[in-house]
Amino acid sequence: MNADDPAVSLTKPPVAVEDNDLLLPGFVTERISPARSTAVAARVGIFLGVSITMCFVTGLISHWIQHPPPWFWWPANPVWLYRLTQGAHVVSGVVAIPLLLVKLWAVFPRLFARPLIGNPLRLLERGSIAVLVGSIIFQLVTGLFNTAQFYPWKFFFTTTHYAMAYVSFGALAVHLAVKLPVVRSALARPSAETVSAPKEPGAVSRRGVFVAATAAAVVAGVAIAGQSVPLLRRVSVLAPRSGEGPQGLPVNRTADQANVIAEATAEEYRLEVGVGEAKRGFTRAELAALPQTEAEVPLACVEGWSASAHWSGIRLRDLLAAVGEYRGGDVEFRSLERSGLYRRSVLPQTHVVDADTLVALRLNGAELDLDHGYPCRLIAPTRPGVLQTKWLSAIEVLT
After folding, report:
1. Residue 346: beta bridge partners?
2. Half-sphere exposure of 133 (CA within 13 A, CB side)
3. Based on the domain organization, do 217 and 360 belong to the same domain?
């Protein structure tokens, strides 16, 4: 009988895997590439853990800016800070995709390890892996779809993504705690053993897998980073926002989609501003007649894209002073839009008094395009684009 006969292979005794006393069936070990090792899984896992941690932290920052808890504070300067954190969030998430695929490839044979359940520690390990893999795949897939503004689901992305971030990061912490001895053992082995040559001619080596995983992660990061880094824009083939759009700036939501064209261009348009008991309505011409200032503030969106822009208009603090005495507090901005989650936004006092916070009338030397918020819009530093309210109808100091 041929030794390669599957019937023979199935009867071969289990073989111990390299990192612990678990056993793999003989027919599985015969077909495992030597590159599918704990050494590769541990090293790729380190980079994957760093990427996920960066994605988690920057994602929390983005969520807290949009839905701030009472204790949260976010500075108005430097003006590029949100551009940096949200760009890092998307890039780290995209970098994690090839790393996760290689990690799963390296550990996949261990799904067949015996005992299938085992002691409580092993049960905890397997349970954490199931939650970890499922939640991370969910986060990466939905996050990637969000960069393209593609939502083939019925749940609200922002709150679901935020909740699942805690699930995935918690599962990662449990998994690391359980697997730490194995990881330490794998990393402590001599380099000749951990990156040994393939057993068969032409087979990929452990070093080759690790180098390929690293290269794939770098390429994936560069392919999306051009959304935030202008120097990489030409090579960022996966970036859904390239900087193209009216007045050289991308647009997520047009005036037509917001159904505001008629009201935004109406002769009777007024921007209503309230400071305490004082109220005043401004026509577009009256806004243009007020002292104007300029600011270089990048527009940065939650999808990860950002672009530098030169804005001009009235400083918010000056506009409020033209109506009444601003004594502190948050300020609410309302749009001409009649529906939508972001038809209003609230600006913290830190940003209200900042010199770069404008009620903008012009962009890059020209009057605001309708799709960029004509007749006027809010521009505040270190804020996501969804909170830079367009087509302003009212501004009110909250008491």
Report:
1. 332
2. 14
3. no
Pair 55, 146 in one domain: yes
Q: Which of 22-26, 130-134, 349-353 has the lowest mean pLDDT?
A: 22-26
What is the residue-averaged pLDDT of the chain? 84
Residue 5 lies in a domain: no
Q: What is the pLDDT of residue 114?
A: 65
Distance set, CA 294 to CA 135, 279, 328, 364, 365 (Å): 45, 26, 23, 10, 10
Find the helix or strand (DSSP H, E) in which 144 lies.
Answer: helix 120-147
Q: Are strands 271-275 and 392-397 parallel, antiparallel or unpaired?
A: parallel
Residues 327 and 275 in one domain: yes
The answer to whether residues 228 and 260 belong to one domain is no
3 state DSSP class of 219? helix
Nearest CA among 284, 348, 368, 351 for reference residue 315: 351
User: CA 46, CA 283: separation in Å to the nearest integer?
Assistant: 58
Report how far residue 361's alpha carbon sits from residue 384's, in angstroms, rounded to the nearest whole number. 19
Q: What is the DSSP string of 346-368?
A: EE-HHHHT-TT-EEEEEETTEEP
Rounded Cα distance between 375 and 82, Å, is: 26
Is the C-alpha dihedral spanning 171, 67, 356, 146 positive or negative? positive
Which two three-digit tokens encode residue 288?
């243009």
Decide if pLDDT at 80 tops 60.
yes
8 Å CB contact between 355 and 315: yes
384 three-state secondary structure? strand
Q: How far apart are the C-alpha atoms of 188 and 181, rounded to whole Å?
A: 11
For residues 70 and 170, membership in a common domain is answered with yes
Confidence grade of residue 112 (pLDDT, cut at 50, 70, 90): low
pTM of the model: 0.84
CB 386 within 8 A of CB 66: yes
Cis geometry, peptide bond prior to residue 115 (ω within 30 degrees of 0):
yes
The total number of structural domains that make up the chain: 2
- How far does CA 288 lie from the centroid of its chain? 37
Domain span at residue 39 reads 12-232
User: Mind listing the pLDDT tens digit for each residue in 330-371?
Assistant: 999 999 998 888 899 999 999 999 999 999 999 999 999 999
Answer with the residue of higher pLDDT: 131 or 178. Answer: 131
